[in-house]
């Protein structure tokens, strides 16, 4: 695992040169340090943060082991795998750009060749694993982001070869990471033309640069897309334009289909949708990682802002209830989304394993749809919360949060595109509700992961709080989801009578209805799985604090649906709304003594966190001064010019 | 006005060198172009955006004149002033950093000397106006941002001079723009010590650098605070530490107070609060400008995103109702906040004029409080909406919105600190509710600007919609505000019985109560003044479209309070909530044909907008390609190393 890592890091030093803020983070530094994770020791130097540490009602190391899972503690034989996972985790929080370059080469490009290709691509696969080539993944085109079937690049059979061509500006491949300067090979999606007709979208693995000169091959133009903010500036997001570029027939990734030397198209797929479901896995793997980005954003944001909030000796800003209210819910979000993502990833790995092993069951088809619906809902929910958390953390740190040395704005820039790649959040929410609507037409809604089981139940109106607020929140969600299903479908039927097509109608029922439905479906699943996780915690103190963490997350996300719950008829009068909000305030206040301890559970070590405000020792002001003193009494060249300018003005005026 | 402008721009070229993204915006370029504003002509080249332009129900130029006000059309004698205002406006949308440097020298430093000083500061004032010196304003200290009375820098009388001293790290002056490398003079706030005791916070104007060498004077250390994102990186936000620095007695800005050569403190102020109210004006002037930043952020965000939304020839994303819903409310926000800010600024100028002319009436004291309450509420409301707009616009442009050439992330970074400076938004909201609570103890709540007149009325519950949705929204706000006043005060009294001090109690009633109250108070005033502005529009087509613009803004901001309205008992059942939300969707849809025309009313010219996606001609894809083609077939030096690395790996593996 260490070897492909090196390739991903290869151009880091150069890429970083573009962004002066990152200059000091050198490749050697990462390689040396990144393997020494999870060995956090607290240096008890500053009284105040340590005072807050002592307030925690639980043991930090115990809870960390519960959240990280057993493998880190007991699974000795897999220690290398665990180390590698920790390295990827660390790289994600340290620099998402480098993480992406590694992931795009080894996982996205590599996985595509592995899962869409056959034996004849074994040599390409070996070269990928041995880092003899650098791969990139070309799907998106300039004017088609989220609709894969509309791609316009063509690969036309001609005299025993494929001819790749870009018919217009809008069909130029773009956003492919690693492409601009480094990639030697690419997985390319194109419309396959042979036997005089288009056979649909297919994937190919082609060489794009000469291995010695690194110049693009004939018929290929490649370039960078220009500057981007944050970590992504060094990712080499490139564009590629084909002008009748020729490649051999074996470049077709031919699992389930092929083109013979005579140009005959053959396929073992029974339907278009069966072909698509093979591609699905390759496209969905990214979303799993992005859900974790939402958790990471919450964790980094609140680590920095909460530690800074206790840095001031007299009356730390942490003591203001509003400051707690602004930050602690996002800390809870970091925990609950992380817990959800780990379970979801396990399901996904199981699913992929069954697909790879050739299983073709009804249940697996169901699972494919459920994974699609859930990832399309959870990715927006997680990433929006992460971006919100980073914005709120910056504001909660006041002006000092705006300094680059706080890393908060840098983090927001770096996490920002997570809302867009692998499916723009609002677009994929629509996919989620479409799957739910289709499911509702079936006789039952039981699903392999159980996230839709309740869809046909008739939920009850609010009649008072139970002794478990999370169960109360889940009940409200079930009613809300039922209400949104009903209003979406009512308006769908109403619009159908006007003669509009289903594409238009689905777009017209998004606002306040199908869009909210998908969000609520995702949040319900996250809370449900959180509840099941917390129930299974054996150690009592960890369990108790995690119950409150889950409660606060649940109340915080439900609060945004309160108005719709009133409109739906779930509740009336002040009881429910007041009850939810006072629980919110009380749970938040009850977690205040645990907040710094909870931060310690999830926070990366200081050199990964890279924030002057958020260091573990709580000495934010000393670290700020270190930054300030670097710039003491500077004398840039223009000062002389300015002095001359002012003197000249003064002379001119005295002459008048 | 052109002259101080030059000083502000003086170091721009150097400052820009820090940020490569800005390199191409040279000083000469700005100076040449910035005066040629408001001469927009449309080049009718691309069909699609022009198709959308034709859909507008109103005349763009007529509406622009209505929004900009008569002075630009009729006031020929003030043409220079109008040009200067336009230049500042343009500079604000072009580069807030440069605008800030100009403003800090001429307006903040200059105004402080003018309004807090006396005749003996006339020469300093002349030098400021003639740009013979460069000024900065030093109030904030490292560990004290928003609480001015807690400042710790001291100015102690000693042998006929003041000795300035920084007692500890937390008392170092910071965030002073222009200070790091350029400022020769500074207005400094310090605790004045003489006659053996502290006389409270006073202001001084002192020289900080040698005019020839530009080195800090003895006993002064100055430095930059380090890198910041966006436009603010070139602002020279500096820190200053005093080590027994000596300055003459005349440096005290001595309006209403003085220290004699013998060290005797004399004052004509009758009370501490009278002294504070003199300083108030200087501190409040900034907030006016920041409210406009909120409007500018909305305008720039929606100009870029809406024009890009109609760029794609087949099925522009603008046609999706969700896309319209994500953007058009913020466009309306730009209009309504701009209208509000102009009226508020007129009130403020009148107030300042009366203060300067020595008026000391009951009404003026009332106006001072109302200005404070309203600016403390409107600044958060405006800037939060602006930041939201920029985030939503970036997302609505998909991946291409993330490219630096879209300018959207850059704008978000540049507007981000508006939420913090001149009072952190959440902190100043508390000031607003405190003034409201105090007002409620008086026999009536009539105020000079009329924004609190309704506070003691007993508003009615919802009983059905009228034929004016804006009036309906205002009625709901009145009920909401009354409810929030009641719950805040109820909880205040409850907490008082527990023996807590009023500072703590005021903090504990913020979440869901006093905090929301201030926001609602600000939004109500913005809508009310919007309504009065729209009522006065004579031209019918402009009036009709502006009625819908105001409706959409009003519905959009009220929607966020729907849950609280249900909890308050204002409404029950689905009617009100469903009514508000369906009006929201319908009004938004009704504005869709006008959206591109409305953008044209407020959008700055292309060279100021500086976005590849948002250009007036709608040719976003062509402009993107211009950026892409700059990077075609680049061959950075590391490519050779990478080729060698890959070849070596290949050789090693073939040897095995």
TrEMBL record, chains A, B:
User: Is Flavoprotein given among the entry's keywords?
Assistant: yes
| Cofactor dependency | FAD
A GO cellular component annotation here is:
peroxisome
Q: Where is the active site?
A: 422
GO molecular function of the protein, one example?
Answer: FAD binding
Pathway involvement?
Lipid metabolism
Task: Give the keywords, sorted.
Answer: FAD, Fatty acid metabolism, Flavoprotein, Lipid metabolism, Oxidoreductase, Peroxisome
Name all Acyl-CoA oxidase C-alpha1 domain ranges.
281-435
Q: Which residues are involved in binding FAD? A: 140, 177
State its location(s): Peroxisome
Which BP terms from GO are recorded?
fatty acid beta-oxidation using acyl-CoA oxidase; lipid homeostasis
Domain Acyl-CoA oxidase C-terminal residues, every copy = 471-644
The entry's family comment says: Belongs to the acyl-CoA oxidase family.
Q: Protein name, please?
A: Acyl-coenzyme A oxidase
Give the species. Answer: Diploscapter pachys
């Amino acid at each position: 695992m260490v070897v492909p890592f090196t390739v991903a890091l290869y151009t880091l030093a150069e890429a970083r040169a573009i962004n002066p803020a990152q200059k000091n983070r050198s490749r050697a530094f990462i390689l040396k340090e990144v393997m020494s994770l999870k060995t956090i020791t607290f240096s008890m130097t500053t009284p105040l943060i340590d005072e807050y540490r002592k307030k925690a009602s639980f043991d930090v190391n115990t809870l960390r082991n519960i959240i990280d899972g057993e493998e880190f503690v007991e699974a000795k034989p897999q220690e290398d795998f665990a180390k590698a996972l920790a390295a990827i985790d660390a790289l994600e929080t340290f620099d998402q750009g480098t993480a992406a370059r590694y992931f795009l080469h080894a996982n996205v490009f590599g996985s595509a060749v592995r899962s869409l290709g056959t034996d004849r691509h074994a040599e390409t696969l070996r070269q990928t694993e041995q880092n003899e080539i650098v791969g990139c993944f070309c799907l998106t085109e300039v004017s088609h982001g989220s609709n894969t079937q509309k791609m316009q690049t063509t690969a036309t059979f001609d005299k025993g070869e494929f001819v790749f061509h870009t018919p217009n500006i809008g069909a130029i491949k773009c956003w492919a990471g690693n492409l601009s300067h480094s990639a030697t090979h690419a997985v390319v999606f194109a419309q396959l033309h042979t036997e005089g007709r288009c056979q649909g979208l297919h994937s190919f693995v082609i060489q794009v640069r000469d291995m010695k000169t690194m110049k693009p091959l004939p018929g290929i133009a490649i370039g960078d897309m220009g500057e981007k903010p944050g970590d992504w500036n060094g990712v080499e997001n490139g564009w590629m334009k084909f002008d009748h570029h020729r490649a051999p027939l074996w470049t077709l990734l031919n699992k389930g289909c092929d083109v013979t030397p005579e140009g005959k198209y053959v396929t073992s797929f029974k339907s278009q949708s069966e072909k698509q479901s093979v591609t699905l896995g390759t496209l969905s793997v990214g979303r799993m990682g992005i859900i974790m980005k939402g958790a990471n954003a919450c964790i980094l944001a609140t680590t920095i802002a909460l530690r800074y909030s206790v840095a001031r000796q007299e009356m730390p800003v942490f003591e203001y209830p509003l400051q707690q209210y602004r930050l602690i819910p996002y800390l809870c979000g970091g925990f609950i989304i992380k817990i959800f993502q780990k379970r979801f990833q396990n399901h996904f790995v199981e699913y992929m394993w069954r697909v790879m092993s050739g299983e073709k069951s009804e249940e697996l088809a169901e699972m494919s749809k459920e994974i699609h619906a859930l990832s399309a809902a959870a990715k927006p929910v997680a990433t929006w919360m992460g971006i919100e958390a980073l914005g709120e953390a910056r504001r909660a740190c006041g002006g000092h949060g705006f300094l680059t040395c706080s890393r908060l704005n840098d983090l927001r820039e770096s996490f920002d595109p997570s809302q867009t790649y692998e499916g723009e959040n609002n677009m994929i929410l629509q996919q989620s509700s479409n799957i739910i609507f289709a499911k509702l037409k079936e006789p039952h809604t039981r699903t392999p992961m159980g996230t839709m089981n309740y869809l046909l139940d008739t939920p009850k109106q609010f009649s008072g709080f139970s002794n478990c607020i999370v169960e109360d929140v889940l009940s409200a969600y079930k009613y809300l989801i039922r209400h949104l299903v009903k209003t979406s479908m009512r308006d769908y039927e109403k619009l159908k009578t006007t003669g509009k097509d289903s594409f238009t109608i689905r777009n017209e029922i998004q606002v306040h209805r199908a869009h909210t439905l998908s969000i609520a479906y995702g949040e319900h699943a996250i809370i449900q799985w959180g509840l099941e996780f917390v129930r299974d915690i054996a150690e009592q103190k960890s369990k108790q604090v995690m119950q409150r963490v889950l409660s606060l997350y649940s109340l915080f996300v439900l609060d945004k649906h309160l108005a719709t719950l009133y409109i739906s008829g779930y509740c009336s009068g002040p009881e429910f709304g007041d009850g939810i909000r006072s629980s919110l305030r009380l749970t938040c206040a009850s977690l205040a003594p645990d907040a710094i301890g909870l931060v310690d559970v999830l926070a990366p070590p200081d050199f990964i966190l890279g924030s002057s405000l958020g260091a573990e020792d709580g000495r934010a002001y000393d670290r700020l001064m270190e930054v300030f003193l670097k710039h003491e009494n500077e004398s840039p060249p223009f000062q002389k010019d300015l002095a001359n300018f002012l003197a000249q003005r003064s002379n001119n005026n005295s002459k008048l």
